[in-house]
Amino acid sequence: MSRKKYIGNTDGLPNWLNPISHAVVANNMCFVSGQLSVNREGEFVSGSIKEETIRSFKNFFAVIEKSGFTNEDIVFIDIAFNNLKDVQIVDELYKAYFEVNKRPARTIYQVEALPFGGKIKIMGTAVKDI
Questions:
Q1: Quick one: angle between helices 49-66 and 87-97, nearest 10?
Q2: 3-class SS of residue 20
Q3: 129 or 125: which carries more pLDDT confidence?
Q4: I need a surface site. Which of 41, 45, 72, 97 has the fewest CB within 10 A?
Q5: Structural domain tally of the chain?
Q6: Residue 81 to residues 13, 48, 66, 96, 110: CA-CA distances in angstroms?
Q7: pLDDT tens digits for 7-18?
């Protein structure tokens, strides 16, 4: 039977106004909910695509860490944009966050709208070797 741990509003993570978990850990896997450009109080922080991406990744990595995983455990990232023309800017940041031969699998796609009018949302999965 799988044991599950729900990662909610904890120190170092934004306090979501929505009724969701930041992540769910099941056995050796961590499933991270979509992370937006929000501050610790859960308030959206609008900015350029670069600024929103940096803040979204910062929140994503904080959830990974609070869940007991590391960046090297990340195996999949799903990125939703409101404008695919921004992909080059995000790719440059992505390359800086992940080493060449240690990059997670990834999907990217454009959506009509994101919560709070955001430009990007980042979610993903991490797996620990057992």
A1: 40
A2: coil
A3: 125
A4: 41
A5: 1
A6: 22, 13, 25, 19, 5
A7: 877 777 777 777
